[in-house]
Amino acid sequence: MSEVLNANSKNNSNQITSKVTFASLLVALGIIYGDIGTSPLYTFKAIIGTKEISEMLVLGGVSCVFWTLVLQTTVKYVWLTLKADNQGEGGIFSLYSLVRRFGKRLVIPTMIGAAALLADGMITPAISVTSAIEGLERIKGFEHIPVVPIVILVISLVFFVQRFGSHCVGKAFGPIMTIWFLLLMIMGILQIIEAPSVIQSLNPYYAYQLLTYYPNGFWILGAVFLCTTGAEALYSDLGHCGKNNIRITWGFVKLCLVINYLGQAAWLLNDAGAFLNERNPFFEMMPQWFLLAGITIATLAAIVAAQALISGSYTLINEAMNLNFWQRVGVKQPSDTKGQIYIPSVNAILWIGCILIILYFQDSSHMEAAYGLAITLAMITTTILLSYFLLFKLYWNKFLVGIFLTIFLMIEISFFIANVVKFKEGGYITVIAGGLFFFVMYSSYFARKINNSYTKFEDLGKFSKMIVALSNDQDIPKYATHLIYLTKADRREQIEDRIIKSIFDKKPKRADVYWFFHINRTNNPYTLDYEVSELVDDKVIKVVLNIGFKIQPKTELYFEKVIEDLIKNEELNQHLKNNASSKYNPTIDFKFIILQAYLSVDNVFSLNESVVLKSYFFLKQFAQKDQEAFGLDRNNVITEYVPLIYQPAKTFNLQRKK
Fold first, then answer.
1. Rounded to an integer, what distance in angstroms lies between the CA atom of residue 656 and that of residue 658?
2. Which of 234, 538, 612, 631 has its CA 20 to 30 A from that of 201?
3. For 135, phi and psi rounded to 5 degrees?
4. Do the strands 540-547 and 510-521 form a parallel or antiparallel pair, or are they unpaired?
5. Per-domain residue ranges for the chain?
6. Would you say residue 17 has pLDDT above 70?
7. Contact of 74 with 246, CB cutoff 8 Å
8. Treating both helix axes as pointing N-terminal to C-terminal, what angle do 173-194 and 291-322 enclose, rounded to 10 degrees?
9. Is the dihedral of CA 643, 649, 651, 656 positive or negative?
């Protein structure tokens, strides 16, 4: 028997419009392009750095940026990666859900990519806002303004308002980014008119010349990479806008970005002089009278970029929890807007990380030196996962998949090698942050794997007669009318042995109906349905809840819906008349039993298992309680603590002294 909890739940993802309208395009501009859209604030400044300005450096730099946007962003992400559409959802965990059954080892690349994206969520808001605020130093009278306190204030306000939801200010994101991209285009055109010859730099020969003939030209790729760091967000935000809206708006965004980069190149060749001397070409192009307005628009665009990374981090952690990659933490819904969530613990971690990065680096030039190392790893892992998708889901020829892998791994490994030199310049900050995120994911995932491997399952049928006898034994006080256990057993006839022990405890738990509730996480984001099996008529019932990896479980509400359906269909005959706790209270009498595991001291481990398990149980102390994570009211939950003994210590010979 199979019922649907919510007839529309499996189609929720289809509510993400695939229609292209002016409003949908405006939303896409506001949500998708904050990171990549603000890259002109710092990319060319990083390419030039302290090097002497020359035609080879400037034109070669523009050429590298242009072809990076073409190959890495347009071809790989906008054309290919957006094909990996998991019921309207995107992102590394959605991609992993599509391909995980085709390769057991894909879990490690997925963790690396997700950890790198979280580390990126710390430095992107810091570098974007700092680069924008630094423009104030060009205004007369503000040359020595303290930038760091202003940046910390702006960043702190952005993180503070997250608890209220971004739906109100989010309505302004589309118009803000539209104005921003038009500003990029106009600024670029005004400079290109003065030096139209810069357009020739779109010829890939100039990129080739820079990388092969310019002294240490290859290492400039580390700065060039900054132009495409936001490409991963194009895929991660697929669920908010739909692929058609992303592909159409990308054409406009790419045009504005390229024109602005060409404009910066024109200014560098015409007006910059021999050295940049820590000036920012982006703000140097602006006329003095427009600086304050331009800086204001740039700051607003940087705030949008910060908001996009913060919201993306919430979504990433929420999916990680549902796929067992992260400890359970509190998730809140600050508004009625679909998909908008707020995770206080993640908000605090990212805020602290951003503030520490700002205080450590002090200015955007030093942040540029550290930026990009972690995100190259995320792009490499996406390429690996995408190759599986192309091979097993789109059924591409192995030869074509091999060409795809070869081309993009060569590009991304080149970027990675060029970024490795940033490690000692501050890149170690994001690598360490990403490493910590990876360790949490690794210990959370593999500790559960180890735990499951040592979990003993019993055939429920062997105990059915004893359960029925206990249920009918009037000498035992009734524990509850309906007794519900959450179980990991996905097979219809199986149950954990510790649940059997709990039922037949020293004080047996007598109930009229015994329910065994299994939550099955599906590869689809918004699945929500259930299956019911009556192992003993009206006595022992197994429920399998199929729930998408993007949905927060509300197990108690689901159980009440199941009971309601069974009574309505007259399938729970024994309790149609007497289903309440008493004649004075019509409420259904039920109790959930949660078996809370703890690590027994009576264990010996290998080194790997010891580190993983002890780390997992240490982190679990700070995680959300199971009843909250599964959506249970604590008044209806009993928690029992069960020792986990994986590998008992060796037997010993204890003798009494005479």
1. 6
2. 234
3. -60, -20
4. parallel
5. 40-442, 457-644
6. no
7. no
8. 130
9. negative
Of 425, 70, 379, 421, which is closest to residue 220 (Cα–Cα)?
Answer: 421
* Mean pLDDT (whole number) for 129-156: 88
Q: Comparing C-alpha atoms, which of 522, 450, 626, 390 is closest to residue 93? A: 522
Output 32 or 110, whichever has higher pLDDT: 110
Of 210, 175, 247, 177, the C-alpha closest to 18 is 247
Angle between helices 373-392 and 107-133 (to 10 degrees): 140
Rounded Cα gap, residues 331 and 311, in angstroms: 12
Widest pairwise Cα distance in the chain: 104
Half-sphere exposure of 450 (CA within 13 A, CB side): 23
Work out the mean pLDDT of the chain and round it to a whole number.
84
* pLDDT number for residue 2: 44
Average pLDDT over residues 10-35: 69
**Please, how many CA atoms are within 13 Å of residue 471, restricted to the half-sphere of its CB?**
20
Enter the tokens of residue 617: 């149980």
Burial class (CB in 10 A: 0-12, 13-18, 19+), 229: buried
CA-CA-CA-CA torsion sign (536, 539, 540, 543)? positive
Are 178 and 29 a contacting pair, CB within 8 Å?
A: yes
Q: With contact defined as beta carbons under 8 Å apart, do 212 and 205 qualify?
A: no
Q: Rounded distance, CA 593 to CA 495, Å?
A: 14
* 3-class DSSP assignment, residue 541: strand
How far is the CA of 56 from the CAs of 53, 62, 149, in angstroms? 9, 10, 38
Confidence of residue 7 (pLDDT cuts 50, 70, 90): very low
- Give the C-alpha separation, 42 to 227, whole Å: 9
Joined together, the tokens standing for residue 482 give 């309906």
**Parallel, antiparallel, or unpaired: how do β-strands 510-521 and 494-496 relate?**
unpaired
* Contact between residue 62 and residue 198 where contact means Cβ atoms under 8 Å apart: yes
**Residue 524 neighbours by CB under 8 Å, 6+ apart:** 10, 13, 86, 87, 97, 548, 549
The string of DSSP letters for 404-433 reads HHHHHHHHHHHHHHHHHTTIIIIIHHHHHH
Residue 342 dihedral angles phi and psi, to the nearest 5°: -140, 125
pLDDT in tens, 283-319: 999 988 899 999 999 999 988 888 888 888 888 888 8
Q: What is the pLDDT of residue 650?
A: 61
Helices (H), 167-229: 167-170, 173-194, 204-213, 221-224
Enumerate long-range contacts of 624-629, CB under 8 Å, 24 or more apart. 624/327, 624/328, 624/329, 624/330, 625/328, 626/328, 626/594, 626/596, 627/592, 627/594, 628/328, 628/330, 629/321, 629/328, 629/553
Beta bridge partners of 644: 599
- Cβ partners under 8 Å of residue 113, min gap 6: 92, 377, 378, 380, 381, 382, 385
More confident residue, 581 or 393: 393
Q: Which CATH architecture has domain 40-442?
A: Up-down Bundle (1.20)
